[in-house]
């Protein structure tokens, strides 16, 4: 548990941080409660952590992270331990209520059974009327309060192994004789009840811790059976000092009544209040991201259209005529066609033509075209004279190629000639 400290006149003062609020109803719409700061409460301390007020005031005290534990009157909740058979272990919630039907004055269908942790073949129980539980939950919700735990006040009374504990109030006594045994009663019948409790136990308690005020001790002692008086250990503490100590040190034995149909629901509303700002920001980020993605898609689509137009333009420069369906695929087919048998013929002819043109002085290549269907080259050369043209043609013929002069004309002091060359 963390604490804060403040410095006053050179001295540090600890400010406790409330972690749990123990509360009980006291009259119509009113509550008493005790704030626990996480450290072990001193049962002889002051009442600075004790408060009374209506539901609105209690709700204001329940800050984020503070657990609210409602204590139900021992008169309304029966706590006991029940023995069961091994084959019942997985069905205790179904079998236990009806195994106690003969011992119950009320109809078991109107009772709510809450189970603790089973050990060996025994399981602790807390039994309360469904109507009482429904009323308490309804009244809490009417004030905007949702308890984290509802339990019998008996489970908050401190107790040690082999000992009993008694909490003395003005009009009633609370008796806890075991982890899951106890009852409340009026002081006038306390003596007889304790005698009966002694008769039902084989051994006397090692200690009988009695929590009361100093002025009550003589009257309490006159009621306690003589057999128990030697075991008395007096503790000066009020109700809330006792309950806060017991809750802190013995919470593992408490049975939460919020089980089954009364189990606490997930606090969606509370979570939404805590995460609403983050959720709105997250949604805003998602919307912005979707907008950016949409803008990118529009830009990419425009670029794609421009790219397709550029591809079509380049295709028409290479292939001026013919149908245009998919220029990229059509151009790839033509290139692949050149990689076949025609491609090998083209390359072999180029290998032969190139050196001939290069070996003849005064020859310059003006144009070169290849006809795939005819497997022939048509070239235009510029020579110093007609004799050089004939020399080129003859040298190509000597290589096994067919070189045909298709035309010539004078171009100043030079001769321009056109040749058709076949393999």
Instruction: Identify the strand order in the major beta sheet.
Output: 5-4-3-6-10
CA-to-CA gap between the ends? 98 Å
Largest sheet: 5 strands, mixed
Shape: rod-shaped
How helical, in percent, are the residues?
Answer: 25-40%
How would you concisely characterize the structure shown here?
The protein is of the alpha+beta class.
List keywords for this structure.
423 residues, alpha+beta, 5-stranded mixed beta sheet, 19 strands, 29% strand
Give a structural overview.
The protein has 423 residues and is α+β, with helices and mostly antiparallel strands. The protein is 37% helix and 29% strand. The protein is built from 11 helices and 19 strands. The strands form 5 sheets. A 5-stranded mixed sheet has the order 5-4-3-6-10. It has a 5-stranded mixed sheet with strand order 13-12-11-14-15, with no helix packed on it. Strand 16 (364-371) and strand 17 form a beta hairpin. The chain is rod-shaped, with a radius of gyration of 51 Å. Residues 1-14 have low confidence and may be disordered.
């Amino acid at each position: 548990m963390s604490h804060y400290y403040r410095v006053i006149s050179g001295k540090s003062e600890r400010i406790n941080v409330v972690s749990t609020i123990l509360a009980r109803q006291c009259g119509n719409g009113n509550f008493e409660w005790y704030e626990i700061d996480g450290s072990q409460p001193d049962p002889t301390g002051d009442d600075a952590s004790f408060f009374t007020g209506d539901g609105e005031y209690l709700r204001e005290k329940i800050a984020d992270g503070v657990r609210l534990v409602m204590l139900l009157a021992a008169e309304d909740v029966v706590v006991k331990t029940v023995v069961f058979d091994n084959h019942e272990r997985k069905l205790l919630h179904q079998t236990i209520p009806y195994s106690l039907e003969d011992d119950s004055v009320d109809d078991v269908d109107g009772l709510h059974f809450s189970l603790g942790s089973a050990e060996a073949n025994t399981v602790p129980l807390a039994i309360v009327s469904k109507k009482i539980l429904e009323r308490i939950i309804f009244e809490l919700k009417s004030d905007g309060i949702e308890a984290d735990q509802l339990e019998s006040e008996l489970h908050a009374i401190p107790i040690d192994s082999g000992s009993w504990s008694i909490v003395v109030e003005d009009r009633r006594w609370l008796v806890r004789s075991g982890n899951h045994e106890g009852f409340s009663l009026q002081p006038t019948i306390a003596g007889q009840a304790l005698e009966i409790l002694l008769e039902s136990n084989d051994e006397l308690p090692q200690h009988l811790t009695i929590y009361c005020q100093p002025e009550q001790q003589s009257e309490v002692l006159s009621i306690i059976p003589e057999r128990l008086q030697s075991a008395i250990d007096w503790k000066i503490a009020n109700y809330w000092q006792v309950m806060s100590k017991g809750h802190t040190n013995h919470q593992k034995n408490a049975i939460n009544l919020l089980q089954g149909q009364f189990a606490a629901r997930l606090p969606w509303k509370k979570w939404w209040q805590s995460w609403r700002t983050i959720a709105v920001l997250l949604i805003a980020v998602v919307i912005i991201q979707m907008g950016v993605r949409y803008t990118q898609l529009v830009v990419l689509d425009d670029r794609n259209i421009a790219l397709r137009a550029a591809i079509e333009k380049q295709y028409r420069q290479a292939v001026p005529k013919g149908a245009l369906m998919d220029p990229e695929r059509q151009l790839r087919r033509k290139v692949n066609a050149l990689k076949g048998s025609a491609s090998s013929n083209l390359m072999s002819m180029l290998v032969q033509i190139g050196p001939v043109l290069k070996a003849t002085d005064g020859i310059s290549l003006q144009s070169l075209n290849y006809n795939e269907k005819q497997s022939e080259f048509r070239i235009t050369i510029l020579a110093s004279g007609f004799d050089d043209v004939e020399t080129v043609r003859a040298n190509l013929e000597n290589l096994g190629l067919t070189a045909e002069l298709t035309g010539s004309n004078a171009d100043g002091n030079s001769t321009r000639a056109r040749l058709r060359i076949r393999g």
